[in-house]
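Workshop exercise sheet. Pairs work together: one partner reads the sequence aloud, the other fills in the structure field after running the prediction. Swap roles for the next sheet.
Pair: D.N. / O.F.
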Amino acid sequence: MKTKLKLQLAAGLAVFLGIMLGLALDFAYFPMPLVQTPLEFSLKPGSSLKSAAIQMKQAGALADDTSFVLLARLLGKTRQIKFGNYQLDRPLSRLELLDMVSSGRSEQSQLTVIEGSTFKEFRMLLNAHPNLRHDSANLSELELLQRIGATETVADGLFFPDTYNFSSGSSDLRVLQRAYQLMQQHLAGAWEQRAADLPLASPYQALILASIVEKETGREEDRITIAAVFINRLRLGMRLQTDPTVIYGLGERFDGNLRRRDLIADTPYNTYTRSGLPPTPISLPGLASLQAVTHPAPSKALYFVAKGDGSSKFSNSLSEHNKAVNRYQIK
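Structure field:
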């Protein structure tokens, strides 16, 4: 009798383990349906495993974030999630998705756009990438913007600098559209949470100023104070007097040396000769610069000068600034 009971228990356990094994295999290897294809999603820098899973669930790449987190923990990939932008061209299993967003195997190609790049430099990266289909190569700037659904007529500043992952053979227009939409999202978020009484009339003006701050920032800790200098100057009606806008306005004429004659030659982008903001952004600003211009430091500084080590010396008055220039710039 005892032997028979043991056999029954063993048989039951085998059936149970078989069912559990089948569920586990289905759980890990069965492709999950997508709400659309291709499906694009972004993982923010610094995202934890749980946060990344929630972001993928919200984008429609996961039906259940808890099971994904459990799988990653079981496989020891808790700290291997890579931020960036991803594109799914077909349904993936949880295991395949985990491999894609971790340091494991990924069949996707990658393109990284650096903060402070210009749109021209972005297009050069796209045109040079061997795994992209170059559908935008012969389009004018305006035609390109129209193809990706942008309402603006000037492209600089409109694309978010980030790492973009895509399948080989994808259209460069899809990468451009993703970068455009991501910038719109980040800009809208920064503008919605902006500090009170900023001298900025629209999100686009915030984007313009962020593009200047991006070019002027040498050290991260100076970014919000550089933003404060420009905000303070706008409040007082002072000219911004920032070299990167002059360089941008010179275009192909800039040879690497900014001369005094360049500072007094009037262009729409010369902030030494013209008050207010330039007409368009001058670079592709990152999230830190968008947040800096919408939440500048509580500073009264009106001037700053490069100290030669990447950092800046800030001054509240012209006399203080002149002393700083003599100390750090004049040899």
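Discussion prompt: The longest strand covers residues 39-43. What would you look at next?
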